[in-house]
Write a structure and sequence with these properties.
Layout (H helix, E strand, L loop, with lengths): L14 H8 L3 H9 L6 H8 L3 H13 L3 E4 L15 E4 L5 E8 L2 E7 L5 E4 L10 H19 L3 E8 L3 E2 L4 E2 L13 H11 L6 E5 H12 L8 E6 L5 E6 L2 E3 L30 H4 L2 H7 L10 H11 L4 H25 L3 E6 H8 L1 H11 L3 H4 L4 E3 L5 H16 L1 H5 L1
Parallel strand pairs: 3-6, 6-9, 10-13, 13-14
Antiparallel strand pairs: 1-2, 3-4, 4-5, 7-8, 10-11, 11-12
Helix pairs in contact: 1-4, 3-4, 5-6, 7-15, 9-10, 9-11, 10-12, 11-12, 11-13, 12-13
Amino acid sequence: MDGKAAPRVAGGGTTRTRLDRGRGALGPALELVHTGRAPTRAVLTAELGVTRATAGAVAAELEALGLIRVDAHPGAAAGSQGRPSHRLEVDGNGPVVLAAQVHTDGWRAALVGLGGRIVATAPGCETVDADPAKVLGSVVDAGAELLRATGRRCVGAGLAVPSAVAEPEGLALAPLHLAWPAGAPVREIFAERVRAAGIAGPVFAANDVNLVALAEHRHGAGRGARDLLCVATGHRGVGGALVLDGRLHRGSSGLALEVGHLTVNPEGGRPCHCGSRGCLDVEADPLAFLTAAGRDPGPEVSLLRQAEDLIRNRYDDPAVRTATEALIDRLGLGLAGLVNILNPDRIILGGLHRTLIEADPDRLRAVVADRSLWGRQSGGVPILPCTLDHNSLVGAAELAWQPVLDDPIAALA
């Protein structure tokens, strides 16, 4: 706000006084609009537990920061009575963050605004060098080019990698399906490249499935869940993540919920890189599916794309159907064990697992209900497919947006 005298408002006090009272509500208010839980000022007022005047001052300040838009004259819905409340939405022309994802079959960079909206994406790359510094340098170069082309202000950067990421160092401990060395300091490398490119804001890195869970909880199939379990397989391997009481559960050092190493096929299962046999990681990923369907993986497209195309286009093939049912049974066995331990109120599935549940939802839910302790009595935990495209990218963006959600004024200063 400028140094001019603040105008008086009805009910006593000034606009500035109202804002000062509600300044601590700026972050919570922005998160409510960001996640779509406060589409109007009336809802914002109720959610924050403040007066309408304070909510108005908070919304006006967020608009002045270029973060949201306030529509003071929305059209009334058909049949409604009274004056409609001011509508709130994120500013589509506001600042962005740089989001990046590296996976077995390539990498991608994007600019993501508030609300999980992808503003621009780079073409990406279909090969991943054995040197993480080279890969992350290329990713950041692509992101910097997007920023130049769009002219948008960047307030941070987030990176998703297919590995457990140890905190607080930001080390990729097990990039098993990349040729990267174990313990690669991915966050430090990423931060160095971001700074060298002149991109401002804090820098983060995390496991890709953790970020899927974060994105889906805020903007997708997990919205509204209190205790959310996410299990996904992308191009190789199986990962899991847990949102507890609305917050991503990382464990003591960022390594929680390595669900890929649950044993689901102990008799005759494939050897796993962890030293065990029959783990979910090697029994329920795209390579396992293609092998079970009797297909030789080709080099022309990713394993994930090949597996999904088979299920969607050749499900009447007995070999494809049998392989689908086998993976559903293995996945269901793993999910049932997790339900017994974690008692989530919702499960969401990503990657190939999303395609599996879409192919035969009743079979998967029946396996989980039969194998979990309270499955039949309680009716079973809801199991849903993820709904966001590029949810790892959106989740990486959420990491970078978090400081702004915590304290918009300090983050944007």
